[in-house]
Amino acid sequence: MTDDHARTSDPEAAARRPLSRKTLLKAALVALPLPALLGSGVALARDHRPSDGPLPPTPFCDDGDDPTPPQIEGPYFKPDSPERASLLEPGTRGTRLTVRGYVFGTSCRPVAHALLDFWQADDSGAYDNTGFLLRGHQYTDRQGAFTLTTIVPGLYPGRTRHLHVKVQAPGGPLLTTQLYFPGEPRNNTDPIFNAALLMNVRQAGPAKEATFDFVVDPGSGPYS
Question: Tens of pLDDT along 142-156?
């Protein structure tokens, strides 16, 4: 799902919207020292309940949305990508893009050590099918957060701009999906575009910054 205000264009409406538990949790993760979070349990930052108390599922976890919807893998996925948070290499052309976010379980717990495997087209709209240019996987940190450094993908016939990603909580099922950019003219004609997968994107000087939070099925792991 997108960040909390990703698709809200009305500032007054956004101000009237009640804060979700996920919003409060993300604010607490940023504000509190990591040792304090690790010592008391992340749920305390949101719920102020004992660390050994169960955290029941809540509709407020994902602001009323369903878990992140899946999408097709497409023909260009390659296994065994290198582990790296930055897909930039010497000579990589294009507008720099930084994507940040969290991976949550369906009960609103941030998922530590969740796998994220990204792949995308280059600035010209081509995929590297011989090597691993603009391909890489990483894991969320102990707070469930991730950061990807890459470029804005180019366009190719039939598709709007998008990033491919596979996400998996430890012990959970694999989610394959795609992320999209708001304001793209081809969003209206792309046959598989899904507005629920829009990132929140802003200009940051010559670069772009984006946010997106995934909500995944944790299976029988500790985040269910």
Answer: 999 999 999 999 999
